[in-house]
Please model this.
Amino acid sequence: ADQGGELFVSLTIGRADGSQLRVLLPGWLAAGFAANGSWLAVSDGRGALWQLDIDSGRLTQLADGPFVGTPIASEDGSLMLLSVPSVQAPYRSELVRLTPSTGVATLLASDHLVYGAFPLADGSVAVVAHESGRTVVRNVSTSGSRMVANLGSGAVNVAVAPDARHIAFERTGGVFMVDGPGGAARSLGTGS
Model:
């Protein structure tokens, strides 16, 4: 996209054959491809969610939102998103699963300030959330929620491997890795 926020933007999709699709959007916050690559879920500048057909360029609004963060599409076409009260003041962010055909959003985790989510190979979800002055990673599945790692205070840009055995993050000018659930963070070096 040529810019983010609430202003109209031009989104360009480059295809493998060299052709391009350009679509005008009412702002842009984030986007994520469907599992089969046939469509793109796009959060506009207000946090509304759109489905962009990659072949035709047709836009269909799926939900008003507001939502933030990259939409994560599942094989069944549902989307994991962060639901917020306001894009301008996201003092609360909850992980939801949206079913596009009905527009219904179902709460996936009980955390009230979720920073991100990562689908795991076993079908569960790693949820990165703020809790009492610290950042935690939980494994959330149909059987409940369990703590995987306590990253301490100031952890940002968290990434969780699909097997949840490795968690990388930044904190105070350094990059760290946690190996295995309950493991201690080890420094990978300075930087971001």
